[in-house]
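Quick one, T. Sequence first:
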Amino acid sequence: MTVNLALAGRLLLATGVAALGLVMLATGAPIARLTPLPESFAAGAILAWMGGVALVCGAVGLLVPRIGRLAGLLLTALFLADVILAQGPHLLAKPSSGGRWSEAFIALGLGASVLLASARTRDVASRGAGIAYGLALVVFGLIHWLYRDAIAGMIPQWIPARAWWPWLTGAANLAAGLSVISGVRARLGALCVGAMFGSWVLVLHLPAVVAAPGSATEWTALAIALGLWGGAWLVSGETPDRA
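Structure tokens:
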């Protein structure tokens, strides 16, 4: 079960990262406010093309045993560059921006996921990647609580009690993040939050893409959800429980 879950996570993660690269290649522009290239260097179609190729090639490399570690390290560097060079200055300038916090920790979560995909089981990098992913989940949970109206507005209207879902999803992110960071029931916490991300893919993001197939924004949201889903199941498959 563990091996299959880790493999499923790796496939989902690679699909999500490749989809981000394809969005960049299709639009000829960096992904708005979420690009592995620092924003100060991201002007122009050439750099967007380079970033898209790097993401697609890196995602494919994650699935090839001989180059998987190198591909994961390359992708980790790209996402960390986004966190530090692109998102960091904006967070310092406007720390009250929930959108910026979300984008920075999406990049951190994806970076942690690809690092975990390339790390050797139970080494320092693997543990650090798990902690970073758990920290991203904690931030996601707090954002769901602090920006409840915005989160509720993303929920399809046919789902009842929309105002209460941000509380529930925020709690789920927080609980899973703390379990992954502490190592206590980390596998269960990551498994459950991954299933939650998967439900968002099916209920929210896929229908949005079908409704607006030409929207780069909707494709990007779908790719991110796939990547975070895969990252969660990688954590569940690769991280040992303390209790």
